[in-house]
Amino acid sequence: MTDNSSGYQQVQDLVSRIRNHTGYEMPVFKQLLEPGAAEKAGAIGYLALISVHDTIALFSLENSPETPVVEDVIAHATSAEACMAIILVPGCQDIWIPCNTDDIPEWGRELYKSSLQYKSGLSTYNIPSQKADPCESLSHYLSDIRRELNGWYYHREGETSESVRDLTVQCLMNQVILRKIFHAHYGNADCGNELTLKASLITFASTLPVHDQYTSRPADIESAESGKMVSRLVSLPSSELVNLRLSWIQPETWAKVFGRHLGTCAKKQRKQASMSNPLHRGAPVLVSDTHVGKLVIEILADQIGRFFPGTICDPSAGCGHLIARILRIIRMKHAVSGDTDTIISRLIIAGDTIYATDSSAIHTLTIRLVIIIWVIGGEILHPLLSLNPLWYPCMKLNDHLQTGSALYGKEIVSEFVSERAGQQILRYLHPIDTTDLVPAKKQFSLIISVPDGSLPMQIPEVTGYLTKTYQSFHQGISPAALYTERISYCTVPGGATVIFLPSGWISEISYREFRRWMATRLPATVILENNASGRVDLKEISAIILKERREKTLQVIRIQRSSTHGNVSIKDYTIPAQFLSGEDGWRLDDPWEEQMLRFITKGSMTLSSYLFDELYPGDAIQEKKSSAEGWTSLIYSEGIITIQVSNHPIPQALAIIPGRDKFLIGLLHSSLIRWYMQVTTGRESSENRAVVNIIRNLPIESFDHYAEDECRMQSEVERAVERITFLTRLKSTSHSWHDQSRINRQISFTQGELDQQIFRLYHISESDGQEILRRVMNTASAVTQTKGIQIF
């Protein structure tokens, strides 16, 4: 971004403030506003890419905006799926407008809450609390276009092949979308047949090149009648687009919308689907919306220099959402490096870098559309370019974006007795070798994909071919597992393969052979998502990263999400190959945790024994009355025990203990027991009865009353409990921010002293104690936790 205006200087000042607060290097791009109130008011728009997932929309104005201008600003920002919009006016405070409160990072909340103009902006401009959802509106708009084109095609052609009709409709839809985007950009929707930049890009995005005899072919889309229909749809107004600005919608949003839209089409046609129409599959899995996908993409963005410049391939690309994310990462890298950002430079980058295949011809068309939408986001230095500068990169992209399945080879024909049946299966499965995509049979720098769909198990010859070809094949296995085996050796030295697949592969019997293959293919990295109770969520997606290293180990990264706070914590550890065995699945537990659990339980007594069985479940509260000796109530939530001492049992307590044993209270309040509860509750049932049983069996290290050193430790623990109790009571009566900050520091210091005494009592080494504290007190953001994690 190069600009010398006062608005640009304000943007730079704001970006510097955010960079100083967060440490993020945020590339900022100038974005043309669409005709409306904001443009008439002289506003200038910018997009700041905070991360590979988050965006801020910035708007520079000369005067304080009126309500229509603010509403137009919000429409631009929500179209870009920005987490917030910021209006910059010289001589005034910035106006911060949250577009989607759930997406605003913590630092953003702190910054805009400190802006007094934010609150006055809400009341003065009557900003609507309900913002338009671009994905929902676009999905409805695509359905309207498809309905119109289906009716037009049926009226013109009558009863025809369903696959040809769907493919033709998709080609025309791509033309409509791109012409509307160009119209929003430049106010001229009619490209005609001129050899212009616009015409060549639209032609590329709406054409499916024929690479072999099995490629599906659409009907004539270049006829005058087709052009009239497209022009009519371009000029046709739509209520779904009133609050959207098409030129501000990002490629990853289009990929997500088409994934949902085509998934809906597949559901409607599933009953009529036949072997002759494999164009519609289920809705592609949008891994970038999952915790695992976000983590992989964040780390990839941090380490993209390892793979770019290079060749990046998605062999089962779906609607191109992973391709769109990679292009965004490349855009961020180029901006930070200060490289030029033009349409031609983007087209050349896409032609040199991106390779993609998919078994659905319609998905291949959406990939082409997504790439071109990314390309036209660059600057047009010469609007009327001839075709010559575009010929080479467009030709390369034509060769790199193909329809077909890398899961099968053409040798599958030999499985059939009849040559005619073999040719039919080739047309249906459309085999393609990923190495054919790269000139001179070179390999890829990075392969990343989320294969989905199902295998045609009903065809015995196909089942026989898969059995012979894949060591991992088993009845009921996901195609993603076979893709992992198929393309695991297609990367250059130092490259990596990332495959997303259902987490059920860890334990399901249909993946038994795949686990055996994985054990021979180490080293690898597995990224899993835990549910709120700490167990692997088998319903969610996981990621497998294959790399070339010498050590035969499995790196495991587990993402623990909170059901109440929305926070995540990341745990990273390594498992030696000899621990990966068992026919019933892999446990993938942390070896350090296993060793530590054995160490602290060896020779210790259970809490139940320590209390002589005087520990009662919460449902026994009604039977317990007030006691002068008091009651210790244990309240449990997400692996954390909260302790309250009073004369009466607390109604919401999970377990209650008679008396006020200060040593026991200190032990239960220690980081060691908190870590123990987090680990053990993640491996057992989260029901209250099971948690009470875990509490009964907490390891209690008894001390010798005749040992002076151990008696001193007991006294220190009790003294720390008294001090924490006093400080907590003092904090509740303090109103000054400085007093509360000082008391919090004193509580943290005393808690640290308490933890050290407990570690000494259990004979835990200093390094293990530090590791326990790190795991218990990890409150950093997910983005911060990814820094330093090596998965490639």
Describe what you observe in this structure.
The chain is an alpha/beta fold. Strand 13 (553-561) and strand 14 form a beta hairpin. The longest helix has 25 residues, at 162-186. The chain is globular, with a radius of gyration of 31 Å. It starts with 5 loop residues before the first helix and ends in a 6-residue tail after the last helix. Residues 116-126, 189-195, 273-280 and 383-387 have low confidence and may be disordered.
Task: Count the beta strands.
Answer: 20
Radius of gyration: 31 Å
Biggest sheet layout: 9 strands, mixed
In the predicted model, the low-confidence regions spanning at least 5 consecutive residues are 116-126, 189-195, 273-280, 383-387
Number of helices: 28
Which percent bin holds the helix content?
40-55%
How would you sum up the global shape? globular
Describe the oligomeric state of these chains in a short phrase: single chain
Cross-sheet strand order for the largest sheet: 8-7-6-9-10-12-11-13-14
Structural classification: alpha/beta
N-to-C CA distance: 32 Å
Q: What portion of residues belong to β-strands?
A: 5-15%
Tell me, rounded to a whole number, the average pLDDT. Answer: 82
